């Protein structure tokens, strides 16, 4: 009888602890969301007050409450077509640019000869501002998709290249020596040792490349485009519609955050072995 009472008390105690832990987790999550949303809510409230009371002219900054109707008007026209075309350009340019960045970075990171030939040129090209490429790309490729994709690929190339080269150079040489002891050939050492050891730096470069792809996409669409979020920004400026400009900026922030979150999830999945080592 006493044993059954002790078990019941133990189960009751464990249930209480689990309930407390769950409540603590929910409170922590609520507090984190509250802190994250506090500044934007204060800013939006201040903008609403200042515009509604005439302190700021509506043609310069529309009231946040009026943006919803503008968004609905855009949604009923061609807003989602603009979002689709911009996202497609970013992803396509990112895949091309970061893919080439990985190939050249692995080559340069593993070959002193390749580094001597390629690194000075890439370092010089990396310093060229994005807007400087646009006139040349328009002359070579016209205003079609080719020039836009190429500009985005250029933006995606260098963060991946730079971070991957640095990550490969920082791989512990002892690991490579272990591979030699086990008589792994060069290709096996690259696949089994060097790339896994350098993967945190490589994935960081890919995330940076994706962020820069969005920036270069805007640069491309602001100059020569008839569709896309960058075109919405340009069209809003030319037609004196700050509401369209602000909606386009908000869309860019949301899409950038979504894609960065997806890349973070992919990064966590590839680096799940770190959690195993920490345990």
TrEMBL record:
Domain ABC transmembrane type-1, by residue range, is: 79-263
What parts of the sequence cross the membrane? Answer: 33-51, 90-110, 122-143, 149-168, 189-206, 212-233, 245-266
**Keywords of the record:** Cell membrane, Membrane, Transmembrane, Transmembrane helix, Transport
Report the subcellular localization: Cell membrane
CDD domains listed in its UniProt record: TM_PBP2
Gene Ontology cellular component terms for the protein in this record = plasma membrane
Q: Which InterPro entries match?
A: MetI-like (IPR000515), MetI-like_sf (IPR035906)
GO terms under biological process: alkanesulfonate transmembrane transport; cellular response to sulfur starvation
Provide the topology term for how it sits in the membrane.
Answer: Multi-pass membrane protein
Name the protein family: Belongs to the binding-protein-dependent transport system permease family.
Q: Report what the protein is called.
A: Binding-protein-dependent transport systems inner membrane component
Protein species of origin:
Acinetobacter pittii (strain PHEA-2)
Q: Which gene encodes it?
A: ssuC
């Amino acid at each position: 009888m006493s044993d059954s009472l002790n078990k019941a008390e133990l189960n009751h105690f464990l249930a209480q602890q689990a309930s407390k832990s769950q409540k603590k987790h929910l409170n922590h999550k609520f507090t984190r969301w509250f802190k994250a949303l506090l500044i934007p809510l204060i800013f939006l409230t201040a903008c609403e007050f200042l515009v509604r009371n005439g302190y700021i002219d509506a043609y310069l900054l529309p009231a946040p409450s009026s943006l919803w109707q503008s968004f609905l008007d855009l949604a009923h026209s061609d807003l989602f077509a603009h979002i689709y075309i911009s996202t497609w350009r970013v992803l396509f340019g990112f895949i091309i640019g970061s893919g080439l960045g990985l190939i050249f970075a692995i080559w340069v990171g593993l070959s002193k000869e390749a580094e001597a030939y390629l690194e000075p040129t890439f370092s010089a090209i990396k310093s060229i501002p994005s807007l400087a490429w646009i006139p040349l790309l328009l002359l070579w490729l016209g205003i079609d998709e080719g020039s836009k994709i190429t500009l985005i690929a250029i933006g995606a190339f260098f963060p991946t290249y730079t971070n991957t080269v640095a990550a490969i150079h920082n791989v512990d040489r002892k690991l490579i020596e272990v591979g030699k002891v086990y008589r792994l050939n060069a290709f096996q050492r690259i696949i089994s040792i060097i790339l896994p050891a350098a993967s945190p730096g490589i994935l960081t470069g890919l995330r940076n490349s994706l962020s820069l792809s969005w920036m270069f996409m805007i640069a491309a669409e602001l100059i020569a485009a008839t569709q896309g979020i960058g075109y919405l920004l340009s069209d809003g400026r030319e037609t004196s519609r700050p509401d369209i400009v602000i909606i386009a900026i908000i869309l860019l922030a949301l899409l950038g955050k979504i894609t960065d979150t997806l890349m973070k999830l992919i990064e966590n999945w590839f680096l799940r072995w770190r959690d195993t080592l920490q345990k």
